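Quarterly update, task 2.4: S-adenosyl-L-homocysteine-bound model.
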Amino acid sequence: MVTIFKCQPSRKWDIKTEGLMTINRMAGPRKQLKAVFWLLCVVAGSLSLPCGALCESPDPYAAARQRMVVRQLKARDITDPKVLEVMGTVKRHLLVSRAYRSQAYADHPLPIGEGQTISQPYIVALMTQILDVKPGEKILEIGTGSGYQAAVLSHFTDQVWSIEIRKGLAQKASERLKGLGYENIKVKQGDGYFGWPEYAPFDAIMVTAAANHVAPRLLDQLKMGGRLLIPLGSTTYYQTLTKITKTPKGKEVEHLLGVVFVPMVGKILEE
Ligand code: SAH
């Protein structure tokens, strides 16, 4: 899908005038290029041509992303304004393969390679809303996948760590996140069952793969008062999104809703 910079017919003359005035004031090759660009837009507009090819917007999925926020998030139970703002900002289409870009903001999960999936936008927003990350908190994600959930979390705090067991996915996510300027996310390839002791304790841990129990080391690496969100249950059928809060009296457990995630693998399968 290509979203075009709209050269609206009613503004044709304005654009033309602005364009010509700009040309007169310009000097140097870069400015001349810019002037030619505008001139081409004007020509396309004057001839009432679709100007998509000439005036392509730098973010062709901006409109699709806003529609996703309104129809899939606001229309359901995503009410946290910051979550809505961030979901309207993070470029999900740049964290999936080219073949799936046009579906990046659709209301369903998408393949990300190696038999894994990126959750539908609503589940990412919901888990983010439930985790309720505050600025400065240290967050650990298990199951980097595409890197999208980590990117969303990184808008709430400046410290996000994410572990991905599959080397290819870890590498790709890490490169894409860096390319998009997410310098505050550290990705490592490894088994999330063991957490990331070097950076523990964490204020919150989000597990984005289905597990039939909570890895004891993840609980160990949680601060007192910290929360852990995990799809808990059968790894072949469905799970219950579960929030566990570590309190001085023990674990406080809340069973929230039914979900379906790809299974957590590695050490957990031996336990
Ligand atoms: N959060 C991801 C989607 C997660 S899909 C996103 O935003 O795209 C679940 C991911 O968990 C898969 O990529 C899978 O390879 C990974 N995974 C499974 N078991 C794991 C483990 N033991 N440690 C770390 N990652 C694991």
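Highlight for this quarter: Residues 112, 116-119, 142-143, 145-146, 148-149, 163-166, 169, 191-193, 208-209, 262, 264-266 surround S-adenosyl-L-homocysteine (CB under 6 Å).
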